[in-house]
């Protein structure tokens, strides 16, 4: 269902319900008020009759004559004894004489129906001529009131129908007025499919604030989609380029093996080593691609908790010293410092930075851990080739490498630091870089201290 139709339907139905409730309230309030007013007048008449009958009894005047004098223009009066036997009955119509209510010594009033006629009646205890307490009942035909009620009912029904039509038409006009800018915005959005890709909307300052925000949100979304698409295309091109070189090498040496592998041992040895190296490089690149996809899509499970960071780094250093055959020095100002990190992803993060230090330097790798109270800083230092100042802002870009020839030699994929950045985000770690060409590079990782969690506990 369209938004305009929903607005029109809901507002019309709700308004109609409100009108019906108000009309019912008006109708029944007027009806009750009118009947109560008639019964009040009837009670006053009854009190007057009682007073005159009392005076008549004192002056030996016939009480029935008093009742006859106060007979209504369209009604019925009766006096009944305790046995419900009528003592006096005076009516303007013969069929009214059949109306009766039980004897009661209490005063009451009510509305009633007798045949096709509607009456209001009052019952009053009265001392009759013989000194006994009888029941005076006065009935008034209020058919004229019910005819007024009927007219009022038709007026309210007709007014409800008119109001419904008016509300329906007004809601249609208002809905069209409200939805017209939205439909125009939808048309502008749809036109982006037939024009250039990722076209932006022109924000119309005449639109409402909500439509301007919607247009701005659409433009932001298109911009993000454009950047994402460009990154995806660049990623595919870079990955294809990285895979193309080893595949070409493997293909070339495979052809050489077909031609000379059986006759020339030197070609055989060279081809086997080259194919092995390129296969290893392809395996490493594939693993890096999978790691990047995993952390970039948020599928990496992270559980951050207070961790003895120095012990974790020393364990990593011991393992890598065996692999690299190179010394990794770990020093700290607090051996028991705690950091709020996920052990598995932080382990992977440290390996990436240590691996970089190993590839681009030939001296020992230094790792310094500093406890700053509410934060912990880990610095990975090498005395290698360094990074030119103009390249520092780009080193975390996928497949970006400062020296492609050197990266080829060291086996770099250009994805390590991109993966490191995503792992750092998962752990709430900030990365900063200090580097000087031919002097060395320092990566500083600043993370939340685990001391805060211990204090909370």
TrEMBL record:
<dbReference type="InterPro" id="IPR005467">
    <property type="entry name" value="His_kinase_dom"/>
</dbReference>
<dbReference type="Pfam" id="PF00512">
    <property type="entry name" value="HisKA"/>
</dbReference>
<keyword id="KW-0902">Two-component regulatory system</keyword>
<dbReference type="InterPro" id="IPR003661">
    <property type="entry name" value="HisK_dim/P_dom"/>
</dbReference>
<keyword id="KW-0547">Nucleotide-binding</keyword>
<keyword id="KW-1133">Transmembrane helix</keyword>
<protein>
    <recommendedName>
        <fullName>histidine kinase</fullName>
        <ecNumber>2.7.13.3</ecNumber>
    </recommendedName>
</protein>
<keyword id="KW-0067">ATP-binding</keyword>
<keyword id="KW-0597">Phosphoprotein</keyword>
<dbReference type="GO" id="GO:0016301">
    <property type="term" value="F:kinase activity"/>
</dbReference>
<dbReference type="InterPro" id="IPR003660">
    <property type="entry name" value="HAMP_dom"/>
</dbReference>
<keyword id="KW-0472">Membrane</keyword>
<dbReference type="InterPro" id="IPR004358">
    <property type="entry name" value="Sig_transdc_His_kin-like_C"/>
</dbReference>
<dbReference type="InterPro" id="IPR036097">
    <property type="entry name" value="HisK_dim/P_sf"/>
</dbReference>
<dbReference type="InterPro" id="IPR050428">
    <property type="entry name" value="TCS_sensor_his_kinase"/>
</dbReference>
<keyword id="KW-1003">Cell membrane</keyword>
<feature type="transmembrane region" description="Helical">
    <location>
        <begin position="151"/>
        <end position="170"/>
    </location>
</feature>
<feature type="domain" description="Histidine kinase">
    <location>
        <begin position="238"/>
        <end position="451"/>
    </location>
</feature>
<dbReference type="InterPro" id="IPR003594">
    <property type="entry name" value="HATPase_dom"/>
</dbReference>
<keyword id="KW-0808">Transferase</keyword>
<feature type="domain" description="HAMP">
    <location>
        <begin position="176"/>
        <end position="230"/>
    </location>
</feature>
<keyword id="KW-0812">Transmembrane</keyword>
<dbReference type="InterPro" id="IPR036890">
    <property type="entry name" value="HATPase_C_sf"/>
</dbReference>
<dbReference type="Pfam" id="PF02518">
    <property type="entry name" value="HATPase_c"/>
</dbReference>
<keyword id="KW-0418">Kinase</keyword>
<feature type="transmembrane region" description="Helical">
    <location>
        <begin position="7"/>
        <end position="30"/>
    </location>
</feature>
């Amino acid at each position: 269902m369209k938004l305009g139709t929903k607005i029109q339907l809901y507002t019309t139905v709700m308004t109609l319900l409100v009108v019906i409730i108000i009309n019912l309230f008006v109708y029944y309030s007027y009806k009750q008020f009118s009947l109560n007013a008639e019964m009040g007048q009837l009670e006053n008449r009854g009190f007057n009759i009682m007073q005159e009958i009392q005076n008549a009894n004192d002056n030996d005047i016939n009480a029935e004559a008093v009742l006859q004098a106060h007979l209504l223009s369209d009604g019925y009066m009766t006096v009944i004894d305790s046995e419900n036997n009528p003592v006096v009955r005076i009516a303007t119509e013969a069929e009214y004489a059949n109306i009766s209510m039980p004897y009661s010594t209490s005063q009451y009033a009510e509305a009633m129906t007798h045949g096709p006629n509607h009456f209001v009646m009052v019952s009053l205890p009265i001392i009759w001529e013989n000194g006994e307490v009888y029941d005076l009942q006065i009935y008034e035909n209020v058919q004229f009131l019910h005819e007024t009620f009927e007219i009022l009912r038709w007026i309210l029904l007709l007014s409800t129908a008119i109001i419904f039509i008016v509300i329906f038409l007004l809601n249609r006009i208002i809905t069209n007025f409200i939805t017209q800018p939205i439909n125009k915005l939808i048309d502008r959005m749809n036109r982006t499919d037939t024009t250039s890709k990722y076209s932006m909307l022109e924000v119309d300052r005449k639109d409402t604030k909500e439509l301007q925000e919607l247009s701005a949100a659409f433009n932001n979304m298109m911009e993000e989609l454009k950047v994402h698409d460009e990154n995806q295309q660049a990623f595919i091109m870079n990955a294809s380029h990285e895979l193309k070189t080893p595949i070409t090498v493997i293909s070339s040496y495979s052809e050489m093996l077909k031609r000379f592998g059986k006759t020339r041992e030197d070609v055989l040895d060279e081809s086997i080593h080259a194919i092995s190296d390129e296969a290893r490089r392809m395996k490493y690149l594939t693993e890096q691609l999978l790691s990047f996809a995993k952390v970039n899509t948020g599928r990496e499970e992270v559980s951050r908790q207070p961790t003895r960071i120095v012990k974790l780094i020393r364990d990593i250093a011991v393992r890598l010293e065996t692999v690299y055959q190179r010394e990794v020095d770990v020093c700290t100002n607090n051996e028991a410092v705690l950091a709020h990190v996920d052990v598995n992803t932080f382990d992977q993060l440290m390996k990436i930075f240590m691996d970089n230090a190993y590839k681009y330097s030939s001296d020992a790798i230094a790792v310094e851990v500093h406890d700053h109270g509410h934060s912990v800083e880990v610095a990975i230092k090498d005395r290698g080739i360094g990074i030119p100042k103009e390249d520092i802002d780009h080193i975390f870009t996928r497949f970006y490498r400062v020296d492609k020839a050197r990266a080829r030699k060291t086996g770099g994929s250009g994805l390590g630091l991109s993966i490191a950045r995503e792992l750092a985000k998962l752990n709430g770690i900030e990365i900063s870089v200090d580097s000087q060409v031919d002097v060395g590079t320092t990566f500083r990782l600043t993370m939340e201290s685990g001391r805060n969690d211990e204090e909370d506990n």
